[in-house]
Amino acid sequence: MARVALGGFLTFAGIGHLTFSRQEFQAQVPSWVPLDPDLVVLGSGIVEIALGLGLISGKRPKMFGHLATGLFIGVFPGNIAQFVERRDGFGLDTDRKRAARLLLQPVLVDWALSSTRQD
C-alpha cells in the first residue's frame, strides 16, 4: 500500500511539473543549474511520472524504490537552495517552513526504501 501511495504521489507531482504547477516549479530551479529552468522542470516531471507508474505497477519495486531514492537525493540541493536563497513557493514563504521542507526529504527517502524492500 505504501509503495502504491508513493507511486501516486510521484505521478501527481510529475503531472504538476508538466501542467498546473509548472511555473511555480520553474521558479524553484536554482540559478546555478546550467540548464533552462523549463527543461529541468519538464525533465523532472517526466522522471517523476515514470517512477510513479513504475512503483504503482509493482514490477521490479526494489529497482523503482532505489531510483526514487536517487531522485529524492538528487533534488535535495535544490531544496537547500530554496532555503538558502529564501525562494518562496508552494506555501513555503518563511525560513521556518522552508527548513521544515528540508526535513521532509529524509522521510521521502525512507518511504521509497521501506515501501519497496521486497522484490
UniProtKB/TrEMBL annotation:
Keyword set, alphabetical order: Membrane, Transmembrane, Transmembrane helix
Any one annotated GO CC term: membrane
InterPro entries from the UniProt entry: DoxX
Matches recorded under PANTHER family: DOXX FAMILY MEMBRANE PROTEIN, MEMBRANE PROTEIN-RELATED
Compartments where found: Membrane
Bilayer topology: Multi-pass membrane protein
UniProt-listed Pfam families: DoxX
Protein's name in the database: DoxX protein
